[in-house]
Design goal:
By secondary structure, the protein is α+β, with helices and mostly antiparallel strands. The chain has 17 helices and 10 strands. Strand 8 and strand 9 (about 480) form a beta hairpin. Helix 9 runs antiparallel to helix 11 (about 230-255), helix 13 crosses helix 14 (about 320-330) and helix 13 (about 285-315) packs parallel to helix 17. It is globular and about 70 Å long. It starts with a helix and ends in a 6-residue tail after the last strand.
Amino acid sequence: MEVLAIVLVTLFTLYIIHYLYNWMNNKNKKFPPGPRKLPLIGNLHIVLLKGLHQTLLKLSEIYGPVFSIQMGMRKMVVLSGYDAVKDALVTHAEDFEERPKIPIFEKMDNGLGLSFSHGENWRIMRRFTISTLRDFGMGKRSLEEKITEECSHLIKNIKNFKGEPFDNTRITTSAVSNIIVSMLLGNRMDYEDPQFNRLLDLINENLRLLADKMILLYNLYPVLGILPGSHKTFQKNVKELHTFIQCTFMKHLKVLDMNDQRSFVDAFLAKQSMEKVNSQSYFHNDNLTSLIRSLFTAGTETTSTTIRWCLLMMIKYPHYQEKVQEEISKVIGVAKPNCSHRLQMPFTNAVIHETQRFTDILPLSLPHETARDVNFRGYHLPKGTYIIPLLTSVLHDKKQFKAPKEFDPNNFLDSNGQFVKNEAFLAFSAGRRVCAGENLARMELFLFFTSLLQKFTFRLPPGVSEANLTSNVGLTQAPVHQKICAIPRIHEDA
């Protein structure tokens, strides 16, 4: 009881200070409108009742494309619809380029790495990451061959089920993860490797835990960190991931050849060695640990989840699956797919894009923060304002897509059946914080999807009448675990 009393008194004191500070600094400045807020909890009660992105979509119908919501004692500004999100992240890219300091991520990375890093550290790490990933094949033929090889491993594993029902979650995740693993560490890992499976389990559990209410409360009221809960499990998992990464790059350091760098880790360690006399260098071990973990997670989760959604959509809409396979037969035949085929396969390309749009894997994007005071669309946003680009509102914007609430590849096809780009397709976000691995993800999605549809027809197990399109609750929207059947096509041994 004494601990609870201390927590409550601390929260109340912080609320009074927070209220007076905001009143003094913003009493003559226009802040975006929003729902009425309660003391201490703000609008938290609404979110806990209905879910965050569903709540924000409803509020956007009331308050428009730029509005505010208060979570605990923290005010947040929500951007809804393509026009507002593009205006902020692209037109005013420098003003909205920062990441907010969120307790669970600050505890994990301390502002280092890439995804939730800040300021100059983020700029240097992003520049290094993009250039190094390019050096190790991103966008090049060498990486395409590596993905094609991994497709063969995945196909071989699926063939072992001989058309019987199976859950494709783990092997799909392993296959996709091996691409980023080979770039980061210089080698792929076996699907049965217990250490590999443990790493994938840790990532999966942490992504799920990020939607847990205790972590939400911890982020809003860090003083609650003294209590037990999912935030403790999350931090324990991160520690285990970091231990593996640190042991791995120590092995690389022992055999490092400055003239023969074979992986991302090698390139970082070489850069670190070159800058060892610079006490202000950003190329230190803590940055490497956070950078590798964030790339490993990002390079595994979203792409593997999208592929699983693609297969479910083909099961849900078998006439689309037949049309994709007809296009594969016409353009590729029995040869191995490569990226040059994509331009000749408008329908397949449209199906992949439509799956990304419709399934809406990251509905809230990752949050942004204003890097300076900003006057935006008639409102004053002080430096440090927490910004939520509501990507789900962009991907389902009725002004931008022909059929936003339906799964329809025609959203990306013209009247002649040719693929058309849509500027509102922001599945990888936009602006300065756009996904660093977008080109890699596009290659993987096309090659894995076409390779699988070339070899198999995907169906529901006997006795199951409907594909389950329910999403697991987590940082990303992944399909629930379920069994599917992969029926080999006639030319499976070609």
